[in-house]
Specification:
With about 325 residues, the protein is of the alpha/beta class. The protein is built from 14 helices and nine strands. Helix 8 packs parallel to helix 9.
């Protein structure tokens, strides 16, 4: 089904847009049909929206990245299948409620944002100059800081368009990674002090922290494990087995990086991020089935893809949507 979509052969050689008004790519009937058939409660999206080379796929022309970053979201949200998007800039520095509100005003009512917590909340150490020992971060797992600088501004600005609030922990120091029980304890205490109500999801980069104690910490507060698909973590099927140890709930996936490459290697291989180069069918099949199982149980499913997963995040989502619809039809 998805092989027939005309989007896969749209040329990139287009002039820069003279207008400052970002326009969406012309709607494709095949995508509209997929959108109608996609089960309710499945939110597919990309980890950002400011890629000029998505012309013909998401945008009508080649727009400069700074223009897309500020005003491209309205056009992005008109794509029939992209019902969600990640806000990654929050990892580098907290942003005010007004910035979140600016994003929310550009998208329709059924759209949902996945927002990453500031690194200041989840990084044990602060950044330091080369050759200088990184100092400890006093705001690491500080619930007051996270609440005031992340949770409340996101909820105020996004309102009912807020989706998962993701706490993505970078690789932690050896001492902390080696004491998984203590990490789980501290994580649980932190999560318990955050405002109740939002969908919190935790993404790790240290496989050794994926323990029963970690799952118990999530279970105690109703938080979710975010399936971070990254070479530092087990594959999607292994992580899915972790979810079976939790009560049924929302599915949160960040399809970050192809398992065969490092970040910079994938970036060089996949640029300009306009076509699929390394399709990951096993992951796609597993995600499609997880999405269907989740919505069948009455919970939402969020899948956010990075360009470095297969080469082009919007096309990864088109292929995933087609497979979900195919699997749903076969199962029905």
């Amino acid at each position: 089904m998805s092989e027939q979509l005309p989007l896969f052969s749209i040329p990139l050689a287009q002039p820069l847009a003279a207008s400052r008004s970002v326009q969406p790519a012309p709607p494709a009937p095949e995508l509209a049909a997929l959108s109608r058939d996609l089960p309710t409660g499945i939110f597919l999206g990309t980890s950002s929206w400011s890629f000029p080379t998505w012309s013909g796929l998401v945008y009508a022309e080649v727009y400069e990245s700074h223009l897309l970053a500020h005003d491209g979201l309205r056009a992005y949200a008109q794509h029939p299948l992209l019902r969600s998007v990640g806000i990654d800039r929050t990892f580098y520095t907290p942003i005010p409620a007004s910035d979140f509100r600016h994003y929310a005003e550009q998208v329709p009512a059924g759209f949902r944002f996945l927002v990453k917590a500031p690194g200041e909340c989840v990084s044990p150490l602060r950044r330091a100059e080369a050759g200088i020992r990184a100092p400890e971060n006093p705001n690491f797992l500080d619930a007051t800081f996270a609440t005031e600088r992340f949770v409340l501004p996101a909820l105020e600005g996004l309102a009912d368009k807020a989706g998962p609030l993701v706490l993505q922990f970078p690789p932690v120091p050896r001492a902390l990674a080696g004491d998984s029980r203590d990490f789980a304890r501290r994580l649980g205490e932190f999560l318990a002090k955050l405002p109740s109500g939002p969908l919190y999801a935790v993404e790790l980069r240290d496989a050794g922290l994926l323990t029963d104690d970690y799952l118990a910490a999530l279970r105690d507060v109703g938080a979710r494990h975010c399936l971070g698909l990254h070479p530092r973590q087990p594959g999607v099927r292994e992580q899915a087995r972790l979810l079976s140890k939790l009560e049924r709930g929302a599915l949160v996936v960040r399809w970050n990086l192809h398992p065969g490459y490092g970040y910079e290697e994938a970036k060089q291989r996949y640029y300009p991020f306009a076509r699929l180069l390394d399709e990951d069918l096993p992951t796609r099949v597993a995600l499609a089935r997880l999405c269907l199982e989740t919505v069948a149980a009455g919970h939402p499913a969020f899948v956010i893809a990075n360009n470095k997963a297969e080469g082009c995040a919007p096309l990864s989502m088109v292929k995933l949507a087609a497979l979900i619809v195919q699997e749903a039809s076969a199962g029905g």
